[in-house]
Design brief:
single chain, about 160 residues
Length: about 160
């Protein structure tokens, strides 16, 4: 493994600990609500390991998580089918919609599974999806720009 890859893996790991740690503290040590979403863990791979990727850009992170969670909620609450049918339908529609809208964020593809298995309410959109997404995006901008000195988000 080259020195650059070792440094990249360590920094991605450290800043993932920081960001997920922040969300965890907000969730479990305050009364402010839920900020953690399981798919945020895989978002860390993109935000800190590959921030130049189009899939790691703030628009994709925010709207990818938002759209797939909404799809999961709509399917959960309005499609009266067994879970073994609702999960694949919701994932398929969520992935297809992300690609169609050009907001693809691969970790968000798991959100409909989380939503349906968890049987969550529509409040889930606000917390953790919107609030958590905003926090991870702000953290990624600060860390990538100020600490890692990377051009993030990409300026096109």
């Amino acid at each position: 493994m080259q020195n650059f890859e070792i440094k990249k893996s360590i920094t991605a790991g450290v800043f993932s600990i920081f960001t997920i740690g922040l969300l965890t503290v907000l969730t479990y040590k305050t009364g402010l609500g839920i900020f953690l979403l399981a798919s945020f863990g895989s978002s860390m791979v993109l935000l800190y390991g590959y921030p130049e990727s189009p899939f790691a850009q703030p628009k994709n992170v925010f709207f990818g998580h938002f759209v797939t969670a909404v799809v999961g909620l709509v399917v959960l609450h309005f499609l009266p089918l067994p879970i073994y049918m609702t999960i694949p339908i919701a994932v398929g529609f969520g992935v297809g919609l992300m690609i169609f809208l050009n907001i693809t964020h691969p970790p968000a593809g798991g959100n409909p599974i989380i939503v349906i298995i968890g049987g969550v309410s529509f409040e889930y959109i606000l917390s953790p999806v919107i609030t958590g997404s905003i926090i991870i995006i702000i953290s990624a901008i600060i860390i990538n720009r100020l600490i890692l000195k990377k051009s993030y988000p990409n300026q096109k």
